[in-house]
Write a structure and sequence with these properties.
The chain is of the alpha/beta class. The chain contains five helices and 27 strands. The protein has a 14-stranded mixed beta sheet, with no helix packed on it. The chain has a 13-stranded mixed beta sheet with strand order 1-4-6-8-10-12-14-16-18-20-22-24-26.
Length: 395
């Protein structure tokens, strides 16, 4: 009797095992096999140890199924510090046509992005970042009409951002920073796009008004070669809570409305911005960096509510506002950099003691410094600008 029960239980288990093997669509099964052959665990990783094709692939690490189809594929262990994977991304990925999410954790995946990725019509989340992916972004990505998040950051991608990517209607996040992308920024049609991060590339050209949707909340374009005015573009983006245009070649005035945006840091340094700077109201942004531009006119007293203010290396003239100095002396301003301008006066007594919690630099202006304060090394050693320069510059 006991032997009979054992035989029955073994038969049930064998039947269940056979069902588990057969549950996955054969096309998906073969696709996973091809993907497995093209990647390996890096030393210290054991992510692929569960990928035993004599068992149900839906139980593999990173594989999630809905019925008989794979809907999520997360290649690699997402835990912080995991060594990741090496190898290449096999074009068979395009056979997993029910995929909704596809990610690869940081590692040493090389080669180009398979054009077959465009066959994943249900894909909503695509993140292949911090690897060594090279080549161009396939223009066929414009066929991924369900895509919401596209993260290809920290790779070695070259070529243009395909204009077809900008036509994707459901995008909410586009992150392609730290690559070698060139060309211009495409027109984005999605009215749900909230994050656009393209910093540290080689992008160039101007950004016409209307190219970026008003839905944007995070916009980083720093470390590129972008140019042209933004005085019409920026006022359209009044939902921004993060803005970084630094280290580009943008020109023209900075619109006063940008200082009313609900942001913490405003980074517009190292461009070619010119003209006076006139906020509409008291500036509540914690850090404002307008340094290394060609801005001129008087320093607005509306900046006295900023905690860290970088106005150095411009062409500001006149006297430093009294409210700015009062708040500095009261310890409410942590950093005030005004060096390398054409300022002529500052309402501060020579005996005044700058709070130890504050940094104040005023050197290389058109005045004899009333107080001596430590300045950053890049400010140089000259305390006062030559008189000849002060006479020539009229703002």
């Amino acid at each position: 009797m006991l032997l009979l029960l054992i035989i029955i239980n073994l038969s049930i288990l064998l039947h269940q095992f056979q069902l588990s093997i057969a549950i996955l669509d054969p096309v998906d099964f073969l696709a996973l096999q091809s993907i497995r052959k093209s990647i390996e665990d890096m030393p210290g990783s054991n992510y692929l140890s569960s990928w035993d094709f004599t068992s149900d692939p839906c139980n593999f690490a990173g594989v999630f199924c809905d019925g008989e189809r794979v809907v999520t594929l997360n290649l690699g262990d997402p835990r912080a510090g995991a060594p990741g994977l090496s190898g290449r991304l096999d074009p068979a990925i395009g056979k997993l046509t029910n995929l909704v999410e596809f990610t690869i954790v940081p590692g040493r995946i090389i080669g180009s992005l398979p054009a077959t990725l465009s066959e994943l019509k249900h894909l909503r989340f695509l993140a292949i970042c911090r690897n060594f992916i090279s080549g161009e972004v396939p223009t066929t990505f414009g066929e991924l009409t369900a895509l919401r998040t596209l993260d290809l950051s920290y790779n070695q991608l070259t070529g243009n951002i395909p204009w077809a990517v900008g036509t994707l209607p459901a995008l909410t996040n586009v992150v392609m920073c730290h690559n070698r992308l060139s060309g211009s920024i495409p027109f984005f049609v999605s009215q749900t796009l909230t994050r656009l991060d393209l910093k540290h590339n080689n992008l160039s050209g101007s950004i016409p008004p209307g190219f970026l949707p008003s839905s944007l909340q995070y916009l980083s374009l720093s470390w590129n070669r972008l140019s042209g005015p933004v005085d019409v573009l920026l006022p359209q983006l009044n939902r921004l809570n993060y803005l970084d245009f630094s280290l580009n070649q943008f020109t023209g005035p900075i619109p006063g409305s940008v200082f009313s945006f609900p942001i913490i840091n405003l980074q517009l340094e190292r461009n070619l911005f010119s003209g006076p700077v006139q906020p509409f109201d008291e500036v509540s942004i914690q850090t404002v960096d307008l340094s290394h531009n060609m801005l001129y006119g008087e320093v607005s007293p509306l900046f006295s509510t900023v905690q860290n203010l970088y106005l150095n290396n411009n062409r500001f003239t006149g006297s430093v506002p009294t409210t700015l100095i009062d708040r500095l002396m009261g310890g409410n301003i942590q950093l005030l950099y005004l060096q390398h301008n054409f300022l002529t006066a500052v309402p501060i007594k020579p005996t005044a003691a700058i709070p130890l919690s504050s940094s104040f630099c005023l050197q290389y202006n058109c005045m004899v410094l009333p107080v001596q304060t430590p300045c950053p090394i890049e400010a140089g050693t000259q305390k006062t600008r030559p008189v000849s320069q002060c006479m020539q510059w009229k703002g």
